[in-house]
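User: structure tokens for this one?
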Amino acid sequence: MFNMIKKAALGLVMLCLTAGTALAADSIVIKGSTTVLPVAQGTLEAFMKANPGVQMSLSGGGSGEGIKALIDKTTDIATSSREIKDKEVELAKTKGVNPVAHVVAFDAIIPVVHPKNKVFNLSIDQLSQIYQGKITNWKELGGEDLKIVVISRDSSSGTFESWDHFVMKKAKVTPRAQMLASNGALVTAVAKNKYAIAYLGIGYVNKSVKPLQVNGITASVQTAMSKEYPFSRELYMYTNGEPQGATAKYLAFVKSAEGQKIVTKEGFVPLVEVKKPVKKK
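Assistant:
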């Protein structure tokens, strides 16, 4: 799993591994979700090592930005932690773009608090009331008499939209919430503030924050794959039409056993369970 500092940097800084011409036949440009960024970087590095003639560049900015780039034809692959919206598909078609979805991994959105917070489980309704600003003190939830600091992803984030789908149900996030641009930024904020609550993709949870159960269910690879955990979702890579050439080869690699091992290494949930080799006695 990436360390916290590296992941924070991934969400803010564009990674350009070569200076190849964008959208050339032997190059692949990838833009979009900061949640999918570790998966994209890990698989990209392995793919380039095996295919040195292919030039690749990778940047974050959010799911919405990635899909916008796909529609504008400035990226070969748009990474997204949410499904493309109907209005985005309609806009794409007016520009001659046909978005095709490729599920590359699964994820679980996990509410997290400071490690010293005594709360360990929240219901979906309690999370909604916290984020609406209706529950404002941890003592209302069995914790200490401390005001809750609400931290959220910004509205361009696919994770923000998934949180809206799972938790908020179109209710407004309190204007007192801190809106941050990446999973890494949320980790840092919660780790430094014992009053705080935020939500992260499973691959970003580390020992500096405390993951909470939701409705008594712990997020894990198993509960995300089975969808038992209530905030489980797909992670996507979108292309304009069916992928061709190097892009098709790269996506096939991401979905392969080798690529899915990288998904697991980065802390996310593979498309199928990746079995560890049995050690001979």
